[in-house]
Amino acid sequence: MKGKKEQDTVLKSFWQDNRHFADLFNAVFFHGRNVLRPDALEEMDTDASAMLEMKDYSRTLVRIRDVVKKGMCGVCFMIFGIEDQMKVHYAMPLRVLIYDALSYLKEYEKLVRENRSERRLSDSGEYLSGLQRTDRLHPVVTLVVYYGEEPWDGPLSLQDMLWRTDGMEKLAGDYKMNLLQVLDTDRYDFQNKDVATVFEISRHILKKEYRELEEKYKGQEIPLNLGRVIGTITGSKEILQLMEGKQKGGIDMCSALEELKQQGIEEGIKKGIRSVVENMLRRGLEDREIAELSGIPRTEVEAIRQSIG
Length: 309
Fold this sequence. Notes:
five-stranded mixed beta sheet; two-stranded antiparallel ribbon; 11 helices; 9 strands; 47% helix
């Protein structure tokens, strides 16, 4: 399994490609239509850190986004961001709200500096805010891409994180989070072959749908760069091991599938043995007896006993 820093690097590198980035947003937000064009995307600074100051209170918020780009949509540009999540984060809507708010704050402060230095402000209302009446901020759209094996069971909006009081929830504002789960990517119309392949293979591996994979990809080679992304998303050490030492070419999906199926069989056996041991423990058998009957080391029996309390 890759370390978190290496995982982040692999995924960021994949989404920094304008073709991949544009196709992701087009599929999720525009039903596969080519609204966001790769050649109209520009890389943006991922550092969203800012100093918050209110009277006697000040605090520096350090926030680094995963991938951020700006692209033309109609007559103005929008800011698009990707946040990669390997695990469910139960405060993710709040995190996204802060990321987006800091992006707006950054643009607002830039406008204020320009307005004041160029003396664009004409009355007390404009001087108070530092904005002209006609000034507008560019929309920020953040997409959380969740790569987990289990369905997302966390909140999808700020309201989901708040205590519910009958009839009063509408008084508090809301902030909805855009979420894409790899498990659900068959719902989307991806046009870019790389993006479609990464999501399709990863989805089948996460769901342990090896037969479907074999039917479509048996005998095919997957490019190394895509294999690296798939191995990172799924945590498949089998795929990553097939790539070791290779500088070009691809990986044979037949070999990868055999390794993955064997891993699935071994995991199933382990779960079955654990279930048997747990039943024996509940019946009151001693660790020594269970070890003799099941054939697994006594230390493992003790570990299972401790895990179930």
